[in-house]
Design goal:
Radius of gyration: 27 Å
Largest sheet: none
Number of helices: 13
Structural class: mainly alpha
Shape: elongated
Number of strands: 0
CATH class of the largest domain: Mainly Alpha
Strand content: under 5%
Helix content: 55-70%
Order of helices and strands: HHHHHHHHHHHHH
CATH superfamily of the largest domain: Cytochrome c-like domain
């Protein structure tokens, strides 16, 4: 009986300790789960600035949205749909978090929030817009070459992730093209900016991409190279008339096949024996 009592006491203390730890992990959970796409008083990123979010939204709504935003979008929740539309229809990843963990994140946001969010600050305090970023970018040829090599698969990612063109393509001077399973990334930098591209490469919000990157995270250097390449591609090719690489490749292959047939027929008929 005494052993059972001691064991029960030990388990109670262990549970209490776990609960205290869980309540104190709001900052850690925010940094690991939310920081890639959100700021607190830092302005918009991939998603909205979360400063003051506890006052703007009901707690039950926040818990449901943080756990499974796309389920709410599919159900037609007007606030969820409006956010999805406003932020380029980029889905927020589902989060396998308990209520206590989500509440600890919300508590951390509430404690950290102060004053007016940066998105409402005077213009001189705003983050520079994409046009300014493009104008001030200094391209490194080595970085751009590596970004293109990683995108097209000439260079393998260190942790074994698939090359970008397995699913995506860009409109550039190359005839290689890419996959058509997902978005054209030519103008992606113009829509998302550096922080947005980095956030998606760090914590992909798309289920297929998230699965492809599971346990195959990109290194900081790889993310920098891909981001620089997409920045260059946006600056050089976005907004220009798109050419059909598939049509051009088909034409070239057809031309090669026609030449082969002509040569084959010429050789065949030139060497045939004429009847006496």
């Amino acid at each position: 009986m005494k052993r059972l009592t001691l064991f029960s006491l030990f388990m109670w203390l262990l549970f209490q300790g776990f609960s205290i730890h869980a309540q104190g992990t709001g900052e850690e959970l925010f940094n690991s789960t939310c920081k890639a796409c959100h700021t607190i008083n830092g302005g918009k990123l991939i998603g909205p600035d979360l400063a003051g979010i506890n006052e703007k939204r009901d707690q039950d709504w926040l818990i449901s949205f943080i756990r499974a935003s796309q389920k709410m979008v599919s159900a037609g929740d007007p606030l969820a749909v409006a956010l999805f539309e406003e932020y380029n229809k980029i889905p927020m990843p589902d989060n396998n978090l308990g209520d206590d963990e989500i509440l600890s994140i919300l508590s951390y946001i509430e404690e950290t929030s102060s004053g007016t969010p940066a998105a409402e600050a005077p213009p001189e305090q705003q983050l520079p817009d994409t046009a300014t970023q493009v104008a001030t970018l200094s391209y490194s040829s080595d970085l751009l070459k590596r970004g293109k090599a990683l995108f097209y698969g000439y260079e393998k990612f260190a942790n074994g992730a698939s090359s970008c063109n397995a699913c995506h393509y860009i409109q550039d001077a190359s005839l290689i093209g890419g996959g058509k399973l997902s978005f054209d990334l030519t103008a992606s930098y113009g829509r998302l900016g550096e922080a947005g591209i980095q956030a998606i490469l760090t914590n992909p919000p798309f289920p297929a991409m998230n699965t492809a990157f599971r346990n195959k995270n990109l290194t900081d250097e790889e993310k920098e190279a891909i981001t620089a390449m997409l920045h260059f591609t946006n600056d050089r090719f976005a907004g220009k008339p798109q050419t059909s690489k598939d049509g051009l490749l088909f034409f070239m292959l057809s031309l090669v096949l026609a030449m082969f047939l002509l040569v084959h027929l010429y050789v065949l008929y030139d060497n045939r024996k004429l009847p006496s």
